[in-house]
Amino acid sequence: MMKTSDHTDHASAVTAVDHRTAVAAETARFVAVVRGADLAAQVPSCPGWTLADLVKHAGSVQRWFSVLLRARIQEPPRTREVDLRLPDHEDGYADWLAESATVAAEAFAGIEPNQPMWAWGADQHARFWARRMLFETLLHRADAELALGLRPAMDRLVAADGIDEFLVNLPFATFFAPEVAKLRGPDRTIRFRTTDGDEAWVVRLRPDGFGLETAHPAEAPADATVQGTAADLLLLLYGRLPYEADVLAHEGDEDLLAHWFANSAF
Q1: 39, 42, 47, 50 alpha-carbon torsion, rounded to 10°
Q2: Do residue 9 and residue 115 come from a single domain?
Q3: Residue 42 · residue 147 · CB < 8 Å
Q4: Is 201 helix (H, G, I), strand (E, B) or coil?
Q5: pLDDT tens for residues 172-220?
Q6: Is the pTM of this model over 0.85?
Q7: What CATH number does residue 21 fall under?
Q8: 210 DSSP β-pair partners
Q9: Host domain of residue 249
């Protein structure tokens, strides 16, 4: 895959989100959505999952990442065994999810963001795990809202940061998303541009892989472009919206876009 180590300046130009604080805020919103809801309800954006499965997954991720942070891991973990302390009955799941954020906050308090750590993505520091935890939480909060017929709302700057986090880490995701390895092409580019801000990202597909361009992505020529609000682009990248959705605009190489979205599932 194309190296992405030169991405740092682009990331800092997007926004300075306090990921640790945002994890707590997003979890509280998630808890408010599911508290009192029918946890047996299906989640269309996560086929085969119920709301109970969604809550269990989100809280488990927070507790698992917290274990990694407390251990300051320096190599890939050999086990994912974690004491989840999951309630015996689903009526306790909302409180358990809220407690998961407390577990995460305690882990954050014990480590500096710049602490070197192993991470599966581009950023080999503790801050990677806080950022990843935030978008796991936010996305699945949105899944819960979609399952309940609600329109997900997101802070614009947080959503823009989520787009950036997704695109910079996607080249490293092949070990759990093998289709990503198919994201290759004869030097073709896709631009993602926000319509409610001035952010833009250009992804270049080459024969040996893909990665983000860092030089003036808003002005760079592209073979295909997709535009929308930061929130809608984030939902698009995670497969919660099709690029043909009315809330998005796209132009350029349709085959290139189809290839990207067929193989970029995270």
Answers
A1: 10
A2: yes
A3: yes
A4: strand
A5: 999 999 999 999 999 999 999 999 999 999 999 999 999 999 777 777 7
A6: yes
A7: 1.20.120
A8: 205
A9: 161-263
